[in-house]
TrEMBL record:
It comes from the Eukaryota. One of its GO terms (biological process) is diadenosine triphosphate catabolic process. This is Uncharacterized protein. GO terms for cellular component: cytoplasm; nucleus; plasma membrane. One of its GO terms (molecular function) is bis(5'-adenosyl)-triphosphatase activity.
Amino acid sequence: MAMLSFGQHIIKSSAVFLKTEWSFALVNRKPVVPGRILFRFTVMTGHVHVHLLPRKAPALKKNDSIFDEKHDWESEDVPTKWRSEEEMAKEATELRSLFS
């Protein structure tokens, strides 16, 4: 599997756990919650992507506070929260087995 693009980011195949002709799913570099994945699919112009965040009660006191936490967590200014390629590859391998 060749490298894929996700916006301005190049995605290594080791982070991808599902690929079809028009879509792919990958593990997240800085997941705000464990198990967060990204799903990208192609449309006529450009692409659309969806953030899937597993949630377990009572993870948050206020349901919509996930959006504030996601914004703060994903700041590019905090690279210490980024996962290693090895961590991402391990999670992608586990998820890949569910879709084979």
